[in-house]
Write a structure and sequence with these properties.
Helix 3 runs parallel beside helix 5. The longest helix is centred in the first third of the chain and has 22 residues, at about 85-110. The chain is globular, with a radius of gyration of 20 Å. It contains 12 helices and 12 strands. It has helices at about 20-35, 75-80, 85-110, 125-130, 135-145, 160, 165-175, 195-200, 210-215, 220-235, 245-255, 275-285; strands at about 1-5, 10, 40-50, 55-65, 70-75, 120-125, 150-155, 180-185, 205, 240, 260, 270. With about 300 residues, it is α/β, with parallel strands linked by helices. Strand 10 (about 240), helix 11 (about 245-255) and strand 11 form a beta-alpha-beta unit. The protein binds ligand C2E and magnesium ion (3 copies). One magnesium ion binds next to strand 8.
């Protein structure tokens, strides 16, 4: 079978390949092309400490695939496809290069005066995390911009860590020896035992937004979040709640002792060009006038 790809050449499919498989291959092909054509974007979503004045802790870098009509394909729809092949490693490398470059620019502009001022979060996929040369690759990416890994927090899901806990332990230690921080992403959604948390060199535990959303209007899942925060603190980790959308959720998280928050209530992910304006508003203290914390 030959399918005309509109002048871009021909591709060949076995006659018994089903439609779904073909669509998947085409999707992957389009994604690969978008990456090569520099059509992907990184957006940045702020993370704030949950204390008076909501000081900025950093931004999480989030991939976006613009479709030219103002809409984006969300990463949940293309990361899993990329993860089925080496494409995820190219994507991951691009994200890292992009963050390193952006970070250098922000530092040159005096917007990120020190690493302590705020950090950038980078999501690592399971497949990236499995690679023995991961840390070398990440470090050389940042070295090309004259930077170390000390301004970065790497976010890794429970599932990715549990594929090979011993390797994960090593990777996390190496990352931290480079000054990076590490976070367990989507905490609570995996099936792993909690005992590994003791052994892993992690700084933050990011509580999945599904638990945060269950906090309001009716706080059913208080017990789960409360236990997660308690456990994290006992083990010396900070907690970050993702997906905070309402003042009720924020107030509830504050009562439960959560350390930091990220969500639409504070800000949606923004283009890199919007970050300087956001930093100015944070400096003036009017980044979130609708949010009032109790003393
Ligand atoms: P994640 O790492 O857990 O990222 C947080 C997700 O929550 C983001 O979704 C963010 O836009 C969304 N979010 C933040 N605040 C709110 C809120 O108040 N309400 C709701 N409903 N959602 C909120 P996004 O950007 O669609 O990304 C989805 C997932 O795709 C990420 O989940 C992460 O696992 C993956 N991803 C994104 N960028 C990358 C990347 O560069 N590399 C890798 N490997 N994965 C990425
Ligand atoms: Mg994340
Ligand atoms: Mg997350
Ligand atoms: Mg998530």
């Amino acid at each position: 079978h030959v399918k005309n790809e509109g002048g871009a050449g021909y591709r060949f499919y076995a006659p018994d390949m089903n439609e779904a498989v073909i669509r998947r291959i085409e999707f992957e092909h389009r994604l690969r092309a978008a990456l090569q054509a520099h059509q992907l974007e990184l957006h940045y979503q702020p993370i704030h400490r949950l204390s008076d004045g909501l000081p900025l802790l950093g931004f999480e870098a989030l991939l976006r695939w613009p479709q030219g009509d103002g809409r984006y394909i969300p990463p949940d729809q293309f990361i899993p496809i990329a993860e089925e092949s080496d494409l995820i490693e190219h994507l991951g490398l691009w994200v890292c290069q992009q963050v390193a470059r952006q970070s250098r620019l922000w530092r040159e502009q005096g917007l990120q005066p020190t690493t302590e001022a705020w950090r950038i979060g980078i999501n690592l996929s399971a497949r990236q995390f499995d690679r023995a040369d991961l840390v070398d690759r990440l470090a050389s990416c940042f070295a090309q911009e004259g930077l170390g890994l000390d301004g970065v927090t790497f976010e890794i899901t429970e599932g990715a860590m549990m594929r090979d806990p011993q390797r994960a332990e090593q990777q996390l230690q190496t990352l931290r020896s480079h000054g990076a921080q590490c976070a367990v992403d989507d905490f609570g959604t995996g099936y792993s035992s909690l005992s590994y948390l003791r052994h892993f060199a992690i700084d933050h535990l990011k509580i999945d937004k599904s638990f945060v959303h269950a906090l309001s209007p009716h706080p059913d899942d208080l017990a789960i979040i409360s236990a997660a925060i308690g456990l994290a603190h006992q083990l010396g980790h900070q907690t970050v709640a993702e997906g905070v959308e309402t003042v009720e959720q924020l107030a509830c998280l504050q009562r439960l002792g959560c350390d930091a928050v990220q969500g639409y209530l504070l800000s949606r992910p923004m283009q890199a060009a919007e970050v300087p304006g956001y930093l100015e508003r944070v400096a003036r203290g009017d980044h979130q006038p609708s949010v009032r914390l109790s003393a």
